[in-house]
């Protein structure tokens, strides 16, 4: 039998989806399951989005679209990022793809040859490691434990960039931790980046509209506009607008990068489907009341989860200020057991929690931090207190 390409030996299924599939299977068997596993916003966009999509169907020409993205969508995206403090960009600096994950994969294809190095902090989104493995890149992981609020320090970044990685990948607000870097923290990191002109910088900031309270989103370019020739901003409709299944992602960056994305699109996808394009334009350009309301609701849910986790003796839980995740350090449970079932690590903890209490969380090792687990709190509001109570009960029953 012919063999698969060697890269497939490095490709792994999503750890998050494996947990979600296990939870779905148990639910199909009749178990009462509360899932905190999937990072989806669990709300729908406004009616104007669906009206735009329906109108696009009625006007469909059946023709191919633009490899870069149609002008109307690019213009809507440019206004969207200008509101976030990005100025001076034109259509030639942008490209559209099938979600942020597709854009990140294309960036890896465009920037990383086999053996090139990419550096990023841990905890990290699982796909970062998976994409790096597939393209044959070397990975330099920068550990950022709960003791430093899961945030990268300037000392760590300076040391990492001194090794001249081809790419530095940065996520703010963070998945899986929900942490948001302050103005001073981003400004200080930007000054470090400015010292190393041979490294591309990708900022995966798809949660930048999901920041709580008095906190604000900041990007390296806000403080060092001189970095614009090597910083690439990645965005998506998925989280902000409750549209993960519509699969529309964006990049803004140097013209040479945007053109590389266009070239890869011409070989990979040709274009984003016109119905999704119409929905995206409506989401970006239309009323923003639903996303704003959901951020306020997520902040309330964050407070519920944080209070529950901080009430558990031994659990360390830094306070997230964005996205919709809490990432507690649960290592106090390691070495204990639940009803005779040993819990040596995070994977065993999450497996036992799911089996015993019907609560699905993702082990922290999937994100490069094996002392923790991720809680995605976008479930129906009525399920949240029950899920937290089950987790607290599970901890109380450990021996």
What does this structure look like?
The chain has helices spanning 15-28, 47-58, 71-82, 99-111, 126-135, 154-161, 183-194, 220-223, 255-268, 274-285, 289-310, 346-357, 383-396; strands spanning 34-35, 94-97, 117-122, 138-143, 167-171, 200-204, 231-236, 249-252, 325-326, 336-338, 341-343, 359-360, 362-363, 373-376. The chain has two domains: 6-44 and 290-396, Aspartate Aminotransferase, domain 1 (Alpha-Beta Complex), CATH 3.90.1150.10; 47-285, Type I PLP-dependent aspartate aminotransferase-like (Major domain) (Aspartate Aminotransferase, domain 2, 3-Layer(aba) Sandwich). Helix 4 (99-111) packs parallel to helix 5, helix 4 (99-111) packs across helix 9 (255-268) and helix 6 (154-161) packs parallel to helix 7 (183-194). By secondary structure, the chain is α/β, with parallel strands linked by helices. The protein is 40% helix and 14% strand. The model has no long low-confidence stretch (mean pLDDT 95). The strands form four sheets. The chain has a seven-stranded mixed sheet with strand order 2-8-7-6-5-3-4, with helices on both faces.
Short description:
It is globular and about 60 Å long. It has helices at 15-28, 47-58, 71-82, 99-111, 126-135, 154-161, 183-194, 220-223, 255-268, 274-285, 289-310, 346-357, 383-396; strands at residues 34-35, 94-97, 117-122, 138-143, 167-171, 200-204, 231-236, 249-252, 325-326, 336-338, 341-343, 359-360, 362-363, 373-376. The strands form four sheets. A seven-stranded mixed sheet has the order 2-8-7-6-5-3-4, with helices on both faces. It has a three-stranded antiparallel sheet with strand order 9-14-13.
